[in-house]
Design brief:
The protein is of the alpha+beta class. It has 8 domains: about 80 residues, no CATH class; about 90 residues, Roll (Outer membrane lipoprotein wza fold like); about 70 residues, wza like domain (wza like fold, 2-Layer Sandwich), CATH 3.30.1950.10; about 70 residues, Outer membrane lipoprotein wza domain like (Outer membrane lipoprotein wza fold like, Roll), CATH 3.10.560; about 90 residues, Outer membrane lipoprotein wza domain like (Outer membrane lipoprotein wza fold like, Roll), CATH 3.10.560.10; about 90 residues, Outer membrane lipoprotein wza fold like; about 80 residues, Outer membrane lipoprotein wza domain like (Outer membrane lipoprotein wza fold like), CATH 3.10.560; about 70 residues, Outer membrane lipoprotein wza fold like (Roll). The chain contains 16 helices and 37 strands. Strands 7-6-10-8-9 form a 5-stranded mixed β-sheet, with helices on one face. A 5-stranded mixed β-sheet has the order 12-11-15-13-14, with helices on one face.
Length: about 775
């Protein structure tokens, strides 16, 4: 039973219940207003309506005749619709807004993805020029995918599988989701199907609202509002044929455009046209696309929305031209039939700042061979192009047509333009703000290029030229004037000071410089300096041969450097030596530690102080000190010293003179002996004065088979070493001391191979045969 029939039966039940007409069974205690009807009462009327038999026209006429308004009839119809569809009434809140579901538009069905384009292994990626525009459809960041989150697009043509969202708002709310059937219609409530296929969303909205007015009276008097929007969108199929990288039929969104379809197919291939892409709809050409309009102008006028069963044809290109050299965008460009050189240059972005624009070379293919054409683009900018032409834009020459240069001792050295203001050497110097005070004016060099570009030097006496005593020199293009300074043509003048000053080193010489000046520049005398033993070494300048090559000048001055005292005037390249006082020396420190009565740091008292003197100053040895194990470290390296001999005889060579930084360590006695290396049981045993060297080896289990016995050595507690000596097979082992370490090295035995043994045996046999022969002869 339709909603309309149910509605009319409920209305007639209400009428009969008030006036108690022929039927005896009626609902009880009906309210006087339709707004006061509960959902249970409406459901009871629906059940009772099954037994009533009046026509719909009679029911509506009876309701109107008994005081029910058209608004009441509409309200009852809306209540029945909600009960049948299971929706509840949404009443406006105090702010006049309603809580609605957040709906996101989605794509119905799966759409095609971009087909990867295979690249040949033989292709030289990055070296070969590609046709301008080919990267557009290979750019992963530029897909032209339609945006489904945009508002409902105006002019969108509806078709089967599109979804329409219908919202009725006002004093009540009703929502419908309607999908367009394959026949192109949508079905709403008990209304007849509404045909919307091929309509725009605006046209469909007008049709649907007009039909909804029959069941929603509020739409007729403005108390209800209706909105029709596009929901989920359908998929369509388009076909790409011709010179496409991946031709075929693609499923895309109904919101997709031509560029989106071209991107999915990889775009035109190497033979395809970017300038004449054609779109066919219902077997008729509807659009031609020129991709260059988008690439060069940024316009998307040709990027139209596609319809189901559209065909995109990419024809063969008609003309491609290559341009390289000094243009901003080198490459291969597809040209239309009437495009000339001016159009090509515009596509290439114009000339670079280094372009040679007087002539352009063109390589053109003829029927039999290639042909070179040279033309002037300024005269013939409309030069006709042909398919396969290769244009090359050259570079201007790396030289100047009017440049002259001045370098050296002028105030503003650099390049100048040869012209009306600068024609001669004097004018060039004047434009460079004149000569510097240190300019060497006796001779300057004008470097000029000859006709064969070889350089030629022209000497000029600048002093006479600037005074007008000699004629001025005319300049030519690329002339270069070199003016040296006085400082540049002589050796750099320095004086050197060494010795007892705070900052010794080289200093620049200045006229009238005295010995006191250089000492002041060097930071003054150091702490131990004497001013009575200063020497100045001065070069000698004479042509006569003599035994002296340097003059030594002794100087005796006061330390206060008083300028009133004057002093020796220095000459360039003098060397000054400042001496220290004879007995002056910076304190030098040595260290002693271990079994000594007063260990610590000590200052060397005199240059003759020795090891024994330091031990005496430190209070002597303690009773537990092991003097044979004492060690001396100098510059952090162990120095072997026999301290026992040095203390017993202070004149012995072992009693070394002390040096700054020396460190002496005096240990306690080490009452063990360590045996390691090629012994059966490497160990450490207690020192026994009665034990011999062999006894200690026996304590370690004896030598192994790999022991190199005659190379056995020991290291004593003081760091000294001793080795085993052998004489006619008799081994004399080192002396035994407490704290020593015994090391038995490994013998590396060389085993002969069978071939070596055979060779040695053969040698012996041969030698024996020779000896026997000699014996017989004797």
């Amino acid at each position: 039973m339709t909603y309309s029939k149910v509605f009319y039966k409920v209305i007639i039940l209400l009428v009969f219940s008030f006036f108690e007409v022929a039927y005896s069974q009626t609902p009880t205690n009906l309210p006087s207003s339709v707004d006061n009807l509960s959902d249970k009462q409406i459901e009871a009327f629906l059940k009772e309506a099954e037994s009533r038999g009046l026509s719909e026209a009679q029911i509506e006429a009876a309701a109107l005749a008994n005081g029910y308004s058209a608004q009441d009839i509409a309200k009852v119809r809306e209540r029945i619709n909600r009960l049948k569809t299971g929706t509840t009434e949404v009443k406006a809140n105090t702010q006049g807004t309603a809580k609605l579901e957040n709906v996101t538009r989605e794509q119905i069905g799966e759409v095609a993805e971009r087909t990867p384009i295979a690249v040949s292994d033989k292709q030289e990626v990055g070296k070969r020029l590609e046709t301008f525009g080919s990267q557009l459809f290979n750019n992963k960041s530029l897909t032209f995918e339609p945006n489904l989150r945009l508002p409902t697009p105006k002019g969108y043509i509806l078709g089967p599988d599109d979804e329409i969202k219908i919202d009725i708002t006002g004093y009540a709310y009703q929502h419908y989701d309607a999908r367009i059937s394959p026949e192109g219609t949508v079905k709403i409530e008990n209304l007849a199907p509404i045909y919307v296929n091929g309509n725009t969303i605006e046209q469909a909205k007008a049709k649907i609202i007009e039909r909804l007015k029959t069941i929603f009276a509020g739409l007729r008097d403005g108390r209800l509002n209706a909105d029709v929007t596009l929901g989920n969108v359908r998929s369509i199929k388009v076909t790409l044929v011709g010179e496409v990288s991946n031709p075929g039929t693609y499923t895309i969104s109904s919101l997709a455009t031509a560029f989106n379809a071209l991107y999915l197919s990889g775009g035109p291939n190497s033979n395809g046209s970017f300038r004449n892409i054609q779109i066919f709809r219902n077997n008729a050409l509807i659009k031609k696309i020129d991709v260059y309009d988008f690439l060069l102008k940024g316009t998307l006028e040709d990027n139209i929305n596609l319809f189901d069963q559209d065909v995109i044809l990419v024809p063969l290109f008609q003309k491609k031209v290559k341009i390289t050299g000094e243009v901003k965008r080198s490459g291969i460009f597809e040209l239309n039939e009437n495009d000339d050189y001016n159009t090509l240059l515009n596509y290439a972005g114009g000339y670079t700042e280094q372009a040679f624009t007087s002539t352009v070379n063109v390589h053109r293919n003829t029927k039999t061979e290639k042909r070179l054409i040279t033309f002037d683009p300024q005269v013939n900018s409309n030069f006709a192009t042909q398919n396969g032409d290769q244009f090359y834009i050259g570079t201007i020459l790396d030289r100047f047509e009017n440049k002259v240069e001045v370098l050296g001792a002028v105030f503003r050295p650099g390049e100048f333009a040869l012209g009306d203001k600068i024609k001669t050497v004097k004018q060039l110097i004047e434009n460079a703000q004149g000569l510097r005070e240190d300019a060497y004016i006796n001779r300057a060099i004008l470097v000029r290029q000859q006709e064969n570009l070889d350089p030629m030097y022209l000497p000029i006496d600048l002093g006479k030229l600037m005074k007008g005593e000699i004629p001025d020199v005319d300049l030519k293009r690329q002339d270069q004037l070199l003016i040296k300074s006085i400082v540049e043509i002589r050796q750099e003048r320095k004086v050197d000071i060494e010795g007892a000053v705070n900052n010794p080193g080289n200093y620049s010489y200045a006229e009238n410089m005295s010995i006191r000046d250089i000492i002041l520049l060097a930071g003054g005398f150091s702490d131990g300096a004497t001013s009575k033993r200063i020497e100045v070494a001065r070069r000698l300048y004479n042509d006569e041969s003599s035994g002296k090559s340097v003059e030594i000048i002794p100087v005796n001055i006061s330390k206060d450097l008083n300028p009133a005292e004057g002093g020796l005037k220095l000459m360039p390249f003098d060397k000054i030596f400042v001496r220290n006082l004879p007995n002056y020396e910076v304190q030098q420190t040595v260290f002693i530690q271990g079994e000594i009565n007063y260990p610590g740091a000590y200052t060397i008292e005199s240059k003759n102080e020795r090891l024994s003197d330091l031990i005496d100053r430190a209070g002597g040895l303690r009773s537990e000190a092991y003097i044979n194990g004492a060690r001396l470290y100098r510059n952090d390296r162990l120095v072997f010293v026999d301290f026992d001999k040095a203390l017993k005889n202070k004149k012995t060579a072992s009693n070394l003179l002390l040096e700054n930084g020396d460190r002496i360590e005096i240990p306690k006695e080490r009452q063990t002996v360590t045996i390691s290396g090629q012994v059966l049981n490497p160990t450490r045993v207690a020192y026994q004065p009665s034990f011999s060297f062999e006894d200690y080896i026996a304590q370690a289990g004896g030598f192994t088979d790999s022991a190199f016995v005659k190379k056995t050595y020991v290291q004593y507690a003081n760091g000294s070493t001793d080795r085993t000596r052998s004489f006619f097979g008799i081994k004399v082992f080192p002396k035994v001391q407490s704290g020593m370490s015994v090391y038995v090295p490994t013998r590396n035995r060389v085993r002969m191979s069978p071939a070596e043994r055979i060779a040695i045996g053969t040698g012996f046999v041969s030698l024996s045969a020779v000896l026997l022969t000699l014996i017989r002869l004797l």
